[in-house]
Amino acid sequence: MKKAIAVLSGGLDCTVSASVYAKDYEIHAITFNYGQKAFTQELEASQKICKKMGFTHHVINLDWLAKISTSSLNTDEDIPEVDLNDLDDEEKSSETASSVWVPARNTVFTAIAASYAESIGAEIIIVGWDKEEANTFPDNSKEYMEKFNELFEVGSPIDIEIKAPAIDLDKDEIVKLGAEIGAPMDLSYSCYKGSEYQCGVCEICMRRKRGFNKAGIKDLTIYEK
Prior knowledge:
Layout: E1 2-7, H1 12-20, E2 25-33, H2 39-53, E3 56-61, H3 63-68, H4 90-100, H5 105-120, E4 124-126, H6 131-134, H7 142-155, E5 161-163, H8 171-181, H9 203-215
Parallel strand pairs: 1-2, 1-4, 2-3, 4-5
Helix pairs in contact: 1-8, 8-9
């Protein structure tokens, strides 16, 4: 069977994205530890998802990234909390994005995923980048993906392509896709804070909540608020 690398944080988007290719590829999922508050919960979610889907799972520690990052994701700074109306407010969303931005995170993750792909002869790298988050996170955008794929064309001795099934989708469309293909969305963990249950008030939790609500699909997630 063809091989694929999946960058898997245990979140909703990457869970659905990896599940799209589950039937056609032998998937090797990688989860990164860069000192994020939610690592324990992300790891647990990723392990459950991989067990459910039959993926091979690897954990990569990036201590150096934790040391240089000033993001609220992996420092003592508080994770911003938002209201539902803030999600479509460009200025407020940009402020939140700035707070949780980890230096070149997706660039680092994708480059490492490419190393794994070359080492095992994987044809694709699966990521959970999506249209909704690309509005404030440029490393989730279609343009970013296309540029990375151009880099692989000239910089890798094998054919590797990034696949992002959610690149043109908003959260509700991702939820609908997940339901359609039977992705284990109930096992996913999206929260920035790293609580036992997802907080329900950080931006990613709010987008998750809204996505299920707009999709009209029951959200099995347990939220603290």
